[in-house]
Amino acid sequence: MRRRGDQRGIALVAVLWVVAILALIAAVFMRETRTEIALTRNLTEDARAEALAEAGVNRAMLILLGLDESLPWRVDGTPFAFAYGGGTVQVSIQDEGGKIDLNRAGDAVLQGLFTSVGVGQDAAQHLVDAIADFRDADDLRHVNGAEDADYARAGLPYDAKDAPFAAVEELRQVLGMTPELYARVAPFVTVYSPRRDVNLATAPPAVLSALPYLSPDRVRTILDQRAARSGADRRFRVIAVTVTVEASTAGGGRVVRQAVLRRSGSSGRPFDIVRWRRVWPSDSSG
């Protein structure tokens, strides 16, 4: 009888262990299921936000073509928002002519840009000359510039490009450029401007403040006149623009899409998309 009691006790312990293991397996399964459901929901909301962002870019194209007059749009980066598809879409259109072109801008304008973000005069002049050496085709070194030998002495695995900038990101390769400084100036420079000077009517405030030929009073006057204009600004037929769209859904999806559009001259394809990217929160290139 004692042996039977022991066997029953062992069986009971075994049953309890089995039940405990099954309960643990069930808990892990439920947790993984909840995680999978949350991931699926997040992916769905991001996909919806992505679709809304692309819709925002397409609406910007209609605006630039003069086919959508329902919003007081501008081409100076002023954002406007609208509800669409169960979400919110915010669109800003920035004329590339309102930025400082890395290939066309004069030395004084580039130096003004660097000093406006806190770079000292001497360091700014070194950067300006290094940019000139980076983009020109010769091996003649500017007084404060940098040619191939300087890049080699700095231990860099590349030389001066000796060709025009093809993308703003190439500014990172210029000798003396730091990630922190690049992050400060990248939103205000371009390689897509059709003009050597800056379009004062569409330039961001930071660009206006960086221009050495504009006094602070003149900058304030330009901005006041711009703010006084009501409604959409249809005076400018821009050649190239950066469209930034931030789309969000009620379920928490969020996507920031950025596209650079350039007029193609073709009636069947009015714009060429020269850049198309998603902007992530950690992206410092603006």
Characterization of the model:
Helices cover 42% and strands 16% of the residues. It is α+β, with helices and mostly antiparallel strands. It has 2 domains: 1-99 and 193-286, no CATH class; 105-183, EpsJ-like (Ribonucleotide Reductase Protein R1, domain 1). The protein has a 5-stranded antiparallel sheet with strand order 1-2-5-6-7. The protein has a two-stranded parallel ribbon with strand order 3-4. The model has no long low-confidence stretch (mean pLDDT 90).
Sum up the structure in keywords.
286 residues, alpha+beta, five-stranded antiparallel beta sheet, two-stranded parallel ribbon, extended
Question: Topology, pairings included?
Answer:
Elements: H1 2-64, E1 80-84, E2 87-95, E3 100-101, H2 107-116, H3 121-135, H4 148-153, H5 179-185, E4 189-190, H6 205-210, H7 216-228, E5 240-249, E6 254-263, E7 271-279
Parallel strand pairs: 3-4
Antiparallel strand pairs: 1-2, 2-5, 5-6, 6-7
Helix pairs in contact: 2-3
